[in-house]
Amino acid sequence: MTGYGTRLCDDVRRRRFLAALVFWVGFSASSAFSSDWATYRHDIQRSGVTRESLSFPLAKAWTYTCPQRPRPAWAAQPALLNRVDFDYAPQVVVSGGMVFFGSSADDTLRALDLSTGRERWRHIAGGPIRFAPQVHAGKVYFAADDGRVYCLRAEDGKRIWSFQAAPWDDRMVGNHRVISRWPCRTGVLVQDDTVYATAGLWPSDGIYIYALDAESGQVKWVNDGGGYVGRAFSDTVGGAHQGEFIFTYLCPQGPLLASGNVLVVPQGHVNPARFDAKTGQLLRSERLGEAGRENVNRAVERYVEAGNPSPTPEELARIQRSVMERGRGYPGSGGTWCAIANNKMYVLAMHRSRTVFLNSWDVESVSTTR
User: Fold this and answer.
1) Which CATH class is domain 1-226?
2) What percent of the chain has pLDDT over 70?
3) CATH 2.40.128.630, the chain: domain bounds
4) How many angstroms separate the CA atoms of 104 and 13, rounded?
5) Each residue's pLDDT tens digit, 102-128
């Protein structure tokens, strides 16, 4: 199994790296885009959808080769796929005739000319940049593993402000890189005049959720309440925690997303947490403890237990749609690949290294945690 897992992860990494190169080729061939792709997956709902269209056949306009290969935060493992594989390749954004992307290897944010691919400017942070920046109102915002949030002028890369999101500048070694004890592992999200970011990865050290003023970098609010999210009852038959209550603490990992006044914080291994974007107060599903009964994996088990044969791909797709329509998810299997559409949040997850399924929740079905 170990050999299979290693080959699986290596293959996924190669394919994602190749996909990034193909995206560059396809995107650069269409320099006449009339709309920007100013943040990860186009918008803060992470829809990955644009009204623009490509003209085929595509032709390569230019190629840019990064000085170093990506250095992901986590070593590739089958159990981590779709959970914390957010930086296997750099994610680019495009705005104002420029291409922006960060590096997890040399800690540098680069800006290239969209028409020629030539480097316009670069800015070096104090740690790996693992998430795409966001361009907003002529400024570029990003966060890094040094525990800081940055705001630069998009035109020339001049720093406007930076904010230390970590409580203090304490460093450690993480996967052969020197990083803050409170790295920013969700990137940034800019909505209107507010920049959202997180600092911290281990609840025992403290987790910080911030809303910053986009112009000045001043703190609007901070949630530093210890990271407690909630608890759920495990009813997985034969599972390691069968019959136990599982206490969940915030572990921010993955690009932030938002819908209306709800800020969503992915957590990699477990389902995303939700916060009131205006106040920073933690929100949660009213039926968090029962959500586990509605996941695709369990639905397939019930289908087979009822005497049916193993589901065909068509039947499996029907089961997935049924679970999605009920707006329920499995709190024990999350992922960093999240998107919001039609007031539902979708999370691509892997369970026990072998089953990939799609969770969904009603974004607005939340109540204040007491």
Assistant:
1) mainly beta
2) 66
3) 1-226
4) 15
5) 999 999 999 999 999 999 999 999 999
